[in-house]
Amino acid sequence: MGAVRIVIAGEGINHAAALKQALVDMGLEWEVVGVDAAGAVAMAADDPVDVFVCPLRVGATQGPALLAHLRASHPEAVRVLLMDKGQESQAIHALDSAQRMLNTPLDASELIEAVDSVIDLRSLLDNAELKQTIGRIGSLPPPPRVYIELTQLLRDPDATNSEVAELLSQDPAIAAKVLRLCNSAYFSGGRVITDMRAAVTRLGMQALRGLVLASETFGSIQSSDAVDRDAMQERALLTSRLAARLLGGSSAELAATAGLLAEVGRLLPGVRVQEGEPGPHYAEAGAYLLGLWGLPMPIVEAVAYHRMPSRVRGSGFWVTGAVHVASALACGDEVDMDYLRAVGVVDKLPKWQSMAESMAEPA
User: What is d(CA 304, CA 89) in angstroms, rounded to the nearest whole number?
Assistant: First the structure.
């Protein structure tokens, strides 16, 4: 993205001057424009808008209504909702129209960071058809709430298994799914688990986060009945576990999350799954969605290019490579041997194939 034009509506106008000064201080030549509700509605489709920011209310107008209007007139624009503390329950209902949520008063550095991540995303996935397709999806799923809350809880070194279990139990659908997956062949030790605290103890925190993320992601996106969600989720779990094993070390969790979400784009409407179909490819569509959710760029990049790892900028075998191999082995697809030779790991493939076969066997 070249020059960035940020439009701030409603009370956010009061923050425009401070934001402009922050941009100057950081050497960023971005344009900041303030509008009221009428001005936002009156913006023509050809008016440049890269980022649109508004609170929950803009005068007598609901902020989400403005965001929904902007989604129709400027589907490529990033839509940011400002909210005060205590407004989280109201904000949940706005997530269909908002792609990012920031706290008020508007913090210039937070907005700049959010816009920077979008610039990186659009640099990675510079595809006008993709932006239009994703931008126009009316029921674009919101970021996974329980997963985010769980991640925040686990940052507390004093968090207990009971607190984690209590959080998960607040959402019966999540709790049921986690218990079902906990007792699946992948994770079961032969003993049936019916208590959430026991599930937390058995799985461990990293695996639990993966299960919660899978449960929310694969359960929240509306798609055609032709998609076999259960089979897709089983592949995702195997890909996730295998990718983490292939990479190991401090990057294992990045690889696990990227592997879990590698096929999420298949659930989105208007995407191409098979060659010859119309629309953007499901891998890039899924990556674009995850980028809008604010997931780290290594995950977004791995999801986008897990079918074509040689397109990744840079060299070496990292997250994208691990997810490519893991996904191919989990799905029974061909591994890109030229890529493995180029990054110097082709000799490890037989070991990885044996590992995948072992992990796929019922417990």
Answer: 32
CATH of the domain at 301: 1.10.3210.10
Nearest Cα neighbor of 305 from 318, 293, 295 is 318
Whole-number Å distance between alpha carbons of 255 and 241? 9
Find out whether the peptide bond into 105 is cis, omega within 30 degrees of 0: yes
Query: How high is the pLDDT of residue 91?
Result: 54
Rounded-to-integer distance, Cα 90 and Cα 337, Å: 50
Q: How many residues does the chain have?
A: 363
Per-run averaged pLDDT (10 residues), the chain, 363 residues: 78 67 82 87 87 86 87 83 68 61 78 72 70 63 73 82 85 73 61 78 77 72 64 85 89 86 84 75 85 76 91 79 96 95 95 92 58
User: What is the enclosing helix (H) or strand (E) of 62?
Assistant: strand 61-62
Q: Give the residue from 173, 145, 149, 183 showing the smallest Cα distance to 163.
A: 149
Which CA distances in Å does 109 have to 10, 23, 118, 217, 297?
A: 20, 9, 14, 29, 19
> What per-residue confidence (pLDDT) applies to 1?
44
Nearest to 52 by CA among 66, 62, 38: 66
Domain annotation covers residue 51 = yes
What phi and psi values does residue 272 have, to the nearest 5 degrees? -100, 120
Query: Which of 89, 124, 159 is the endpoint of a domain?
Result: 124
Domain boundary (97, 124, 151) is at 124
Q: CA angle, 261 as apex, 256 and 263 as ends, to 5°?
A: 130
Q: Are residues 229 and 357 in the same domain?
A: yes
Residue 139 contacts residue 270 (beta carbons within 8 Å): no
The candidate with the shortest Cα–Cα distance to 213, out of 246, 178, 183, is 178
Q: What is the DSSP string of 269-286?
A: TT-B-STT-SSSBHHHHH
Res 363: pLDDT: 47
CB 172 within 8 A of CB 139: no
* Distance of alpha carbon 151 from alpha carbon 30, whole angstroms: 33
Q: Are residues 243 and 338 in the same domain?
A: yes
